[in-house]
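user:
I keep going back and forth on a fold encoding question. Separate attempts, laid side by side, tell us more than any discussion would. Would you put together a sequence-and-structure record for a protein of your own picking? Write it directly below this note and I will take it from there.

assistant:
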Amino acid sequence: QVHLVESGGGWVQAGGSLRLSCAASGSITSVDVMGWYRQAPGKQRELVAHISSGGSTNYGDSVKGRFTISRDNAKNTVYLQMNSLKPEDTGVYYCNLARRIVAYWGQGTQVTVSS
């Protein structure tokens, strides 16, 4: 079993920055891909970014060049540095750990970007 705890959400003005963290506890393996998804009101959950244990990354098109995902395998923690935030980045950000066909989710952290 895996437990994910997010932190770092909050309110920021457009153009500002926030850093999200997600700490994983339980049995973490080298095949686990960790990442972030977000969901805005009335919209489907979408990929923000994910990263493998080896450091390979993938980003959603809307955040490329603005967000950076990183991972500390020793701490079982994934980070999301969000720069140049836009109002459309507002939503609940969920940490995700994917292990083959199984997915674990955090409880979510709210990010609000005001114009």
In short: The first strand starts at residue 2 and ends at 7. The mean pLDDT is 96.
